[in-house]
Design brief:
Length: 354
Amino acid sequence: MIQELTDQAIELLCQLIETPSFSSEEEETARLIESWFIRHDIPFERENNNIWAYNKYFDESKPTILLNSHHDTVKPNGNYTNDPFKAFVEDRKLYGLGSNDAGGCLVSLMATFTHYYKQEGLKYNFVIVTSAEEESSGPLGLKSVLKYLKNVEFGIVGEPTLMQLAIAEKGLLVLDVSIKGTASHAAHPNNDNSIYNALKVIQWFESYAFEKSSEALGKVKMTVTQINAGNQHNVVPSHCDLVVDIRVNDKYKNEEVLEIVKQAMPDNVEVKPRSLHLGSSSIPEDHPIVKSGIASGRTTYGSPTLSDQSVLSCPSLKLGPGDSTRSHSANEFIYVDEIKEGIALYIKILEGIV
């Protein structure tokens, strides 16, 4: 049965690769996912491009394990030499856009859910959510369907981790920072040049160290990633604008970090967050699912990259086949053996608790 599910999962992944599914444009891959559930006689629900299903013997009195991964992709970068929408295997690698992030995880979790679907007497229920808009953190992704899910105690989010246990994940806070100054002709004296004013602000973001460090995630990391000022060579601009990417550890809420930044800024600086909802996430190392993973030979670590864990309020573990360093790269691929190993390990780790 597991071998058959594995073969079907790889077949589905090839179909997903060959069906464009950029964020907010996942209609066709959603239909492929529906076909999987229909093929296995599993009732499902759908809202927008999110699809979810419960195990056959769902019991309201039991807690539920959420299995989640996404079927949207980024757009292929310009360095592809392969056709990003052509699935093919070469040297045991399955190539194609979304193969690694996160198609391999998605089909592996779907196979795992299907394996458990008809089992009776489980300690937990299962719900699987194949979600949209993960890559864009869009409003019609996983967050939009959480209100429909029942009794979720913890989640497994399928992202490429080499099947190691990402027990914590940094949150994301993006700030738009505008430094004011006095506009003038470049030929005249000006002691209030907004670009020069910005240098001190940039230096603060580079040098400031948050007091609390996390054992799993390390320190909060702030990076100035964009600068924009002026539109003419002989005009000193009235403002210089920055974009700051902040990766927040599990010792701080995004609101706390925002307040620390605002308090440190002089009066001529305006700070606006793009959102506050992409928080850090974690699961205790002594949680049964983590202990089962460790007993299965897995190691734990903290992940610097963001996923749909950020919208979950329950404890969650990031775990999946593939390697995060391949995500969004040209000629993206996943090893076929990683999918086979992923399905087997998902089942083994869950067997330790259900």
